[in-house]
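In response to the reviewer comment on reproducibility (Comment 2.3), we provide here a single inverse folding case reported in full, input and output, so that an independent group could reproduce the run without further information from us. The structure tokens appear first.
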């Protein structure tokens, strides 16, 4: 007898069930905990609401993922997260955060993503997305010749330095990279990084956007570039592929020109109109608000979800400080978010999904190779 092989994979590996799928509660409870309830976005089904958050690893060769990425993402994929988001990947040459970050601006890079990350994730029936970014600020080391002391400082292109022709080219770069990510690398969904230092974010705030044309000044003008990027991506990837977007809630400074939480809420409705499916609010917290950073962020997320309730289909995700199953479940039950994104706990324990299932007395589907040792079965034999 032999083990059934996964189809469409270039090497033999056992055919897997949908990993991380709810099977039963071990406590006798009838209800499925919301953390393990499946959900659908456009053409993609996700088995649970635990996602691997993008994590920088600075480990590429010539902007291509390597065997390190195969091991790093593969270890988590084999344990059944509901979704995985691969670390920030530049859409154009010269816009990575470091020289060891990933890129996806040509066929060769996109093919490496498939070979080192996506093919294995798909062999485990895990949905994987790519976070796309375009970082225009750089961190360089500055040396004071008098004191010989060095410090890291941010330098780079300001929003007002870019011509309209350059902006048109930037929009095209995002569309082309997204198309490569979906058609060549075969990612299941993508995320637009519009956080600090990335091109779209530099246009949001009057602190960084001093333009006087249609890309500066009013709220509508300052979000124009991002909406053009979103529309260009959708044209290039089709209607069935989900689009996530990562934002920060605010500039976190008290200044009349700073980007505010209220503007993020306003932007979220525009993004929903343009077909964004998931809003990913980055970071651990917000200094602006009545309580602690962490509490301020939860209050903001709850308000955001309440604002959209019954009006749009926008889902809310967030990362930062989610380290236990109980807290992850609490955030979902409180209506703070629909998906929990987890980073550092997965670095400590790639099998986090199963450990959380044990904590909540839930049985989930496991990879064939790992299930044999616990409850042998002939169901995967031909």
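Designed residues, in position order:
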């Amino acid at each position: 007898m032999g083990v059934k092989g996964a189809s469409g994979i270039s090497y033999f590996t056992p055919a897997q069930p949908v990993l991380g799928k709810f099977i039963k509660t071990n406590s006798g409870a009838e209800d499925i905990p919301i953390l393990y309830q499946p959900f659908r976005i456009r053409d993609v089904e996700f088995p649970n609401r635990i996602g691997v958050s993008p994590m920088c690893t600075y480990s590429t060769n010539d902007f291509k993922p390597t065997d390190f990425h195969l091991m790093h993402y593969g270890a988590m994929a084999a344990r059944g997260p509901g979704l995985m988001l691969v670390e920030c990947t530049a859409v154009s040459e010269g816009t990575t955060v470091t020289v060891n970050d990933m890129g996806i601006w040509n066929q060769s890079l996109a093919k490496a993503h498939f070979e080192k990350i996506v093919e294995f994730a798909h062999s485990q029936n895990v949905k994987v997305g790519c976070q796309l970014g375009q970082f225009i600020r750089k961190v360089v080391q500055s040396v004071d010749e008098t004191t010989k002391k060095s410090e890291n400082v941010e330098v780079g292109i300001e929003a007002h330095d870019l011509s309209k022709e350059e902006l048109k080219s930037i929009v095209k770069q995002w569309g082309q990279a997204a198309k490569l990510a979906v058609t060549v690398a075969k990612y299941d969904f993508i995320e637009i990084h519009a956080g600090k230092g990335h091109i779209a974010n530099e246009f949001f705030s009057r602190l960084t956007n001093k333009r006087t044309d249609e890309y500066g000044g009013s709220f509508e003008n300052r979000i124009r570039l991002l909406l053009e990027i979103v529309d260009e991506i959708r044209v290039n990837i089709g209607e069935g592929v989900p689009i996530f977007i990562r934002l920060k809630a605010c500039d976190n400074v008290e200044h009349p020109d700073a980007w505010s939480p209220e503007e993020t809420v306003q932007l979220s409705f525009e993004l929903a109109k343009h077909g964004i499916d998931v809003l990913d609010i980055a970071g651990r917290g917000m200094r602006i608000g009545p309580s602690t950073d962490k509490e301020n962020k939860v209050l903001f997320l709850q308000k955001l979800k309440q604002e959209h309730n019954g009006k749009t289909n926008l889902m809310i995700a967030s990362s930062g400080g989610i380290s236990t199953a109980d807290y992850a479940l609490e955030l979902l039950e409180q209506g703070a978010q629909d998906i929990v994104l987890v980073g550092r706990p997965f670095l400590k324990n790639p099998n986090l999904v199963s450990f959380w299932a044990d904590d909540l007395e839930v049985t989930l589907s496991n990879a064939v190779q790992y299930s044999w040792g616990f409850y042998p079965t002939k169901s995967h034999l031909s």
